[in-house]
Every structure is written in C-alpha cells, then in structure tokens.
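testing teh design pipeline on a random one, pls ignore if ur not involved
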C-alpha cells in the first residue's frame, strides 16, 4: 500500500512522541516535512528524526508532495491552520479539540465535506488497548445494558498553566484540555449524547506561584469554566454524571465507571492508551480484563522524552489507511465535532441553566480484536498495525 506523504505542523512538547511513532511504528506514513513558527524547533526535530525538509506553513500548504498534515499547534490556532490546509487540498489530522468554538468546527467540517477531504480529530486514545477492550466488553454484553456511569477528573489547571503557558488561552481550561479524553472515551463506548444539563464555575484569577520562572508576572485567568458538573443523557439511554474540576489540586482522581444490568465496568484512565479495565459482578471478586487489542501505550523503542504519551498518532495512521482504502476513518470529523458539541453544551447549560439538546451525530466502528503491541516479553513490536487496516 502506497505510503501517505505527511507533514507535521507544530513542534511543541507533544510533537516528539508523534514524530517518533510516525517514523517508527506506522508503515503507512511517510513523514517528509516538519514546520513551526519557531524554525529552530522544526530544525531540531528534523535533525533528531532524519526528516527531509523544514518548511513554513505556507510551503506545506502549497507543496504538491504533501497529502496529509498533522496539526499539533495549540487549540486556539487550530482553526487557521486546518482551514488553510483544507483549502489547499490536504487531508488534516488535528490534536484535540478541533477548534475552540463549535461554529468554527462546523465550518471546517463543511469545508472538508465540500472538498472531499479527510479531517481527523484526537483524542485517539480511544483506539488504544484500554478503551477498545472496554468497548469489546460492552459489545459482547459482559455488563448487559449500560444504565448509568460516572466520569471524574481533577487538577490544578491554573498552576499547570504556569508551566504550559498555552493553557492560559481559549481551549486551555480543564474540560477542553483533559476532560475531552473522558468525553471521547464515553462517546466511543456509548455513542452520541442526546442532551446535557450542567452547572459550572469559572477558573480563579491566578497569582503566579513558581516564582523561579514567573517572578513579576501579572495574574491571569483561564477562559471558560474551571469546574463543570453535568448530567449527560446518551442516545442509548444511559445517564452519565460528569465532573471536571480544574480548581483543585494536582492529585488526579481519574474515574470512569459504567453500571450495567449484569455488571459494573471500571474503565482505565482514558488519558492513556493502556488503562486497565476491571469487571465486577454480584457476589464475586473484581477481576482485571486482559487486553483484547493492541496499542497499549508501551513503547518498545529507545526511550525519549514524553514517551508516557504512548501511541499518539495511531488515529492519524488509521486515517491514512482509510484514505488509501476509501473508507471512513474512525476518529473522523463527525466524532470530533460531537466531542466539541458535548463540551460546548455543558458550558452553555451551565451558563443558561437550561437543558442543552445536541444535534450532531457520529458512529465509530471498533478496531478488530486479537492484535497486540508487542511480543517476546514486550521486547519487540507485534502486529497491532493490522488492526488499523479495515
């Protein structure tokens, strides 16, 4: 199968694991160029990973060589980069969230549809072993009909924004930065959301605390809600309580539990690829579910910074196979748009006090089970890439 000629735009902290995986794990990708507003960053990545070209964003857009662009810029820059690349006839995979407003996301989806282009959206952790194994458990009826669920994540997002300053902009609040992984996992497991009822509170005005790096800086406030508490009614009938709290401390409590008519499924951390799932039945001990899928987040290659981000890029690779095979990609624009609409509906309901009804839809076919990330005791790469070939 012909490789998809690809460029990465945005060489910040997440780019290292993307580039490493795109160069080493996915035979469908031919990564030929990198780009960043800070050219030195792009040149560093190109030198480290033996990438042929360093280009400006305009050069990427105008290059007849490049078919697919992987957008790793901050969320507030997504709209401009994605629109430019779609208008130039490029397929685009973007990090989460698609854009920081629903109207912009709708516009980009319509543009991709008109031009017959693929637009894929993270989080692709939903294609990892953890969430795909949980999906397998649900699809095979292991807990019966899902009746309800709980999803919780907390952090001190304002403190985090002292280190990762891009979080101070729109799209940097905890629901959009981290809560999106929980929304993405819930959507992969349960399907579309029908309606949302929520309450919220703003992020605090933050006085810098890391004086060794922020001395003299003025206080700031992350836009949007620092805390969101919501009830989500899914089309399948399940009712899920969601709590995203970015106004507390960095002692993360990741909880994602689904209650069914036959059992309870505790889903592993959806911010990772290899979250461990456990199953609980009445009057029996809780048991661990072995992974039924590959991409468990463990990298068999030489260690590099941010390896704990696991198998980032699997969604882009799956989209590359979809391009070559002429089929829909799993983390497609409809999925990304629905993720964003859920978050926007939570914000809107918290602001107005009214129940927000959703109008977007999506579907996501699970990956085929039976493939694994590694073998020989985890020392070598296995055949998980076959699961991306539908």
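output:
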């Amino acid at each position: 199968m012909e490789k998809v000629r690809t460029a990465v735009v945005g060489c910040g902290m997440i780019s290292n694991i993307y580039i490493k995986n795109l160069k080493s794990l996915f035979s469908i990708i031919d990564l030929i160029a990198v780009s960043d507003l800070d050219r030195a960053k792009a040149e560093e990545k190109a030198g480290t990973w033996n990438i042929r070209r360093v280009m400006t964003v305009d050069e990427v857009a105008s290059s007849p060589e490049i078919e697919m662009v992987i957008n790793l810029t901050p969320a507030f820059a997504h709209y401009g980069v994605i629109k430019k690349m779609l208008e130039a006839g490029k397929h685009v995979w973007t990090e989460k969230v698609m854009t920081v407003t629903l109207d912009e996301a709708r516009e980009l989806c319509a543009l991709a549809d008109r031009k017959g282009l693929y637009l894929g959206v993270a989080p692709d952790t939903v294609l990892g072993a953890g969430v795909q194994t949980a999906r397998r458990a649900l699809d095979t009826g292991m807990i019966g009909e899902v009746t309800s669920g709980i999803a919780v994540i907390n952090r001190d997002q304002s403190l985090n924004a002292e280190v990762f300053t891009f979080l101070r902009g729109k799209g940097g609040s905890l629901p959009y930065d981290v809560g999106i992984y929980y929304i993405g996992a819930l959507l992969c497991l349960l399907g579309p959301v029908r309606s949302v009822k929520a309450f919220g509170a703003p992020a605090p005005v933050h006085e810098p605390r890391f004086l060794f790096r922020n001395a003299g800086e003025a206080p700031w406030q992350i836009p949007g809600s620092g805390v969101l508490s919501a009830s989500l009614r899914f089309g399948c009938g399940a009712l899920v309580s969601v709590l995203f709290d970015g106004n507390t401390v960095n002692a993360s409590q990741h909880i994602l539990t689904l209650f069914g008519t036959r059992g309870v499924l505790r889903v592993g951390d959806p911010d990772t690829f290899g979250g461990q799932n456990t199953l609980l039945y009445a009057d029996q001990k809780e048991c661990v579910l072995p992974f039924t899928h590959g991409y468990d987040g463990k990298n068999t290659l030489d260690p590099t910074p941010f390896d704990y981000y696991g198998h980032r890029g699997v969604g882009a690779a799956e989209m590359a196979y979809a391009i070559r095979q002429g089929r829909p990609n799993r983390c497609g624009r409809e999925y990304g748009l629905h993720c964003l609409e859920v978050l926007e509906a939570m914000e809107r309901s918290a602001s107005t006090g009214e129940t927000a009804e959703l109008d977007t839809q999506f579907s996501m076919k699970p990956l085929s089970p039976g493939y694994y990330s590694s073998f020989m005791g985890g020392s070598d790469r296995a055949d998980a890439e076959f699961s991306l070939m539908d």
